[in-house]
# Entry
Amino acid sequence: MHIHWRSYELRPAGSPPIPPEYLARIEATRPRLHAMAREQHGIEMNEGPFGQNSRPALIGAKYAEAQGKGAEYHQAVFDAYWLHARAIESADDLATIATAVGLDEQAFRAALNDADLEIQVDADIEMARAYGLNGVPAIVFENRYLLSGAQPVATMRQVCDRLAEG
# Structure
């Protein structure tokens, strides 16, 4: 199976403040989310700060992909945020992640300001809009099936089985 990651910003620059009621709903669901991760996958979640600017991480991902380190970078960023409560908007934190997966620190830092990589991120975001996507995760299988939002592993397996059947 091949995974092709696309960029998406939940809270792009200039977004209005998140209403307190919505923040309260998010906080209320966290214990259930943590329990599910623990019980179903043996993962202890310890996510980073809510509402970060993910754009630097997305630009870094485009650079890592171009260097053949996309999968490693994505996994390291996920782990940093979801398991180790690290910020993923900080150039310093991202550079640490990048060097840990074998990327050159200076080249990575320069890439965070690369206009061509910004354009690639914007193109991914525009594609999501064109598909009518407005949340994450959104997984498109073989350009045929869309799963939007967090889905049980069993649902993903059903889609994979259907694809395998032809």
The mean pLDDT is 90.
